[in-house]
Amino acid sequence: MLIGFEIDYKTLPYSRRERNLVTQTTNGRGPKIRDVALHAGVSTATVSRALTDPASVRPALRDKVLEAVKALGYTPNAAARSLRAGRTRTILVVTRKRWSAPFFSEVLNGIDTTLARAGHAMILGNFDAGDRREEEIIDMMFSGHIDGAIILSGIAADTGTRSMLDAGLPIVSISAAVAGTLAIVTDEGESIVRLADHLLDGGHRRFLYLAGPLGNYNETVRWAALRAHLAGRADATLARIEGDYTMPAGIAAAKDFLAMAERPSAVVACNDEMAIGFMKTVRAAGVAVPGAVSVAGFDGIEFADYCEPTLTTIRQPRFELGAAGAETLLKMLAGTMALADGPVRLVNRLRLADSTAPLGAG
Amino acid sequence: MLIGFEIDYKTLPYSRRERNLVTQTTNGRGPKIRDVALHAGVSTATVSRALTDPASVRPALRDKVLEAVKALGYTPNAAARSLRAGRTRTILVVTRKRWSAPFFSEVLNGIDTTLARAGHAMILGNFDAGDRREEEIIDMMFSGHIDGAIILSGIAADTGTRSMLDAGLPIVSISAAVAGTLAIVTDEGESIVRLADHLLDGGHRRFLYLAGPLGNYNETVRWAALRAHLAGRADATLARIEGDYTMPAGIAAAKDFLAMAERPSAVVACNDEMAIGFMKTVRAAGVAVPGAVSVAGFDGIEFADYCEPTLTTIRQPRFELGAAGAETLLKMLAGTMALADGPVRLVNRLRLADSTAPLGAG
DNA sequence: CTGTTAGCGCATTCAT
DNA sequence: ATGAATGCGCTAACAG
Questions:
Q1: Which pick of A88, A114, B201, B280 has the fewest CB atoms within 10 Å?
Q2: What PROSITE patterns does the annotation carry (chains A, B) (predicted)?
């Protein structure tokens, strides 16, 4: 039995010190607002006010409170706060299992940075149509666990019984416009037309388009724009091969391309990954890029500058898409923006690199 | 005025139907447990039990409750539940701003999949040492908003005043072992030795190592293992160039390499991105890979198979790292696993590709 | 400007 | 097996 055993707090790591203070309070689970109130000699209401609306408390008292907060290592309980306030300062971000990490990770970064600055947290949820996870995502919308949602998945979670849209929370969709949400999109149709014009200017007339998944928003917009534009040129042809945005899909498309009797001279892929898989494969088969075929992508992922050859592509403002989406959602929560104020459109930039060249050049 | 105006609910979208039902309940914000109880003719306690412990309620009553739940579109309020139960079924995952998206996105996928299966949500938080975000992360640990944390950042958020470790919640660190947490790591030291042996077998003796950020866990482990191993070979030399895991760092290293009087014949990069940036640059300068220099990476990101040439690397089980981390944390929460049961070690695999060849071959 | 009080919605005692 | 009542921790009315 140790009697009079003295702990020298100054030599202990602060964690130990704090833990010790914590145990001096009412119960085992860390200090509550009441503990702070007692320590500071004020009521719990004053503590609450000193923390959430400092201006409403006399400086002298406020300082006493903040001192007590620091001394006890008090952090307000989030659940109690949420229950009382009716909001959680938490946002749900939904993605799909097979997302394009190089593209979306930077969007996510933009979201996180913006939300964090506003004191909001971000719950990430992956789902694919049909799996149980989809139901959980919807439940979360109705559970009061979150204040709003950002959709990166291109579609809303919807089990047929109910949809995440029904919860009545503000929702923003980024990159793909989802009906019933405020969409943050880019001028992707115009962008792909600019790309096509660049290739047309280089003398290209036989085009091949590497498609994204059928029904996908971006796929639909890009294809429609490209097709409409080339339809206006009597001398141009446009073939199409289906794909799913992955590099293996680019490989598969390349095999089809290599088997074609009359090969197109210009390939426009619906995203960079497919373009990169395509280039790798045709080059391995002895088809020079851009010598024999020009290849362009879409998105402007980082690797577009490191593949061989560097990839002509359309650079989307990924971070800004995320930031604008988060900003917009915060405004909807604040009531200063509404669905009708959308969609928000950002501008892409054509980035020329070594994978495209005028017909016959390269 | 519309009298006797009948709405045909069957032709309305379900969302409309549900919204209608919701308004039949006590207040504006959706049905509460009391509404369900009234609708089913039971007490709130029975509703609660029917939902959380169905076996404890007589089947007849249980069915009535579940029916009422469905009819009203009831979803339990998460904040109230958390406050009452003392846990949130939410996990915090911390990353750093400059993470390697190709590597960590798949780890994240493993985490999310595993947590979701167990009914847990995942809050994502980016931080960098010194910014305000770091404090928020720590606050979250103390706020009762989360039940535990997974560290992908390699270091614990720590302001000097307090650290996320002090909250007393279970914490797992993945890929880099963080003191005070249960670490999920790989046999990276052994892996890099296997890689070195492969190059030694090919006749290489002059090595160059492209380093990660000083102090980084993986950097430290890999460098120590490689250095110790080559130190055992009297005929081998090992140079080192600093970097920060990015492709531009690989470019910078390549410039230094090109300026060397006697160039090493084998380059081992601490991650794939640097190896890829390096290859791109030396090839552009006319140095053949692997003809003049063999290059190897570390991590096994997807793009390693699509760069030019394909990259010899060490493939880490990224999804499994995430899954194991989440699994482990869940066990810690359940009390069936503790810090002392770690670390958990997964095994990497050497993946040979076109960027390495025996000395003088290629 | 500050203290007292009530209640956010739920899970869990304690009775029955 | 079920119901009544309590309190998780906090903030917002209301009083003073």
A1: B201
A2: HTH_LACI_1 (PS00356), HTH_LACI_2 (PS50932)
